[in-house]
Amino acid sequence: MLQQLLQQANFLELTLANPAFMAEERAAIADHTGVELWDTGVLVFTPLQTVPTEDIVLSSGIHGNETAPIELCNQLIHDILQQKIVLQQRLMFIFGNPPAMIEGTRFVTENLNRLFNGEYANPSVATNEERQRAAKLESYVQRFFQSGGRSRFHYDLHTAIRRSHHQRFAICPFRPEKPHLKQQLAFLNAAGVDAFLMHHEATTTFSYASSVKYQAEAFTVELGKVMPFGQNDLSQLAATREMLIRVISESEFPALTYQPENLVLYRVCRSLNKHFADFTFAFSNDLPNFTQFAKGEVLAYENNQPITAEYAGEAIVFPNAQVPIGQRAALCVIADDAITLA
Ligand SMILES: O=C(O)CCC(=O)N[C@@H](CCC(=O)O)C(=O)O
Ligand SMILES: [Zn+2]
């Protein structure tokens, strides 16, 4: 498999052809970069002639139909294999859910991005492919980060189901003891991200798991809107690509000035969870993420009761009434330029 990958330099094609399993193998690119295939969709590069200071995880395809970041990562992998990019940092690529990528769906049985931080082992739920994949992905991330001594980063790349007033935005995992870093927000801002949501509670997402378990600088990054493979305009991600190349191929993390005037900080004020099967939103399916509501305006109905905006300017992100009962149906956010950063 690895020989085929080295020759054809198309990890996406290889992953889609082998969605369930790939045996571990290792090789090298010339004499400067180690390549290790750990499983289907899991590839690790190690610089052999420099001493890396950073361990960087770039995951995509955690939701199978969010294809633009998968295509972007596949291009980066291609360019690394073809020696157009020479790495200075350790780098792990993950294509999260190959069976869902083949089906062109968000997931096959269960939303993979609700199964991390050990939720995959919840004894009250029967196991399935996504639960098994979450367990494996967490173990690969642990193995990647465990050798220690280097700074840890995890950018979990997604696209949103709806259009958004902010075309690219990031979700910053809840970490009450440690403010998020201006360095990281400046980096993501230079990568085209212009809004940041500060999460208000622990979750079971991939980025939260890397943040809480390994103290990684970890983010869920939304890079536009869901499109089928082949229909993405990757020129929209030119800045993202450029900054990702910089972070993996420079010897130090890119030094960028934090420019608050170029971005909006939001705090998540509450998660609207679905409790009853009749949960519906009071707005249309094409209302963009970050649309603001007036205080008291009806956002949704559930159990025949209205759910209203608690604050003037409260905005809705990721509304999805189709989620199973008990899961998040939307996040309510409010712009807040007083959020503490370090
Ligand atoms: O557009 C949507 O409704 C969902 C896009 C998406 O997959 N977002 C992530 C965010 C994860 C987080 O809160 O960190 C998700 O829902 O898993
Ligand atoms: Zn997603």
UniProtKB/TrEMBL annotation:
Keyword Hydrolase in annotation: yes
InterPro entries referenced in this protein's UniProt entry, alphabetically: AspA/AstE_fam, AstE_AspA_cat, Aste_AspA_hybrid_dom, SuccinylGlu_desuccinylase
Record field: catalytic activity: N-succinyl-L-glutamate + H2O = L-glutamate + succinate
Pfam families documented for this protein: AstE_AspA_cat (PF24827), AstE_AspA_hybrid (PF04952)
Cleaved signal peptide residues: none
Pathway: Amino-acid degradation; L-arginine degradation via AST pathway; L-glutamate and succinate from L-arginine: step 5/5
Top-level taxon: Bacteria
Reported cofactor(s): Zn(2+)
GO molecular function: succinylglutamate desuccinylase activity
Domain Succinylglutamate desuccinylase/Aspartoacylase catalytic, chain residue ranges per copy: 53-247
The protein's Enzyme Commission number: 3.5.1.96
Transmembrane spans: none
Segments forming domain AstE/AspA barrel-sandwich hybrid: 262-334
Cofactor details (free text): Binds 1 zinc ion per subunit.
Similarity field: Belongs to the AspA/AstE family. Succinylglutamate desuccinylase subfamily.
Known function: Transforms N(2)-succinylglutamate into succinate and glutamate.
Protein name listed in UniProt: Succinylglutamate desuccinylase
Lineage: Bacteria, Pseudomonadati, Pseudomonadota, Gammaproteobacteria, Alteromonadales
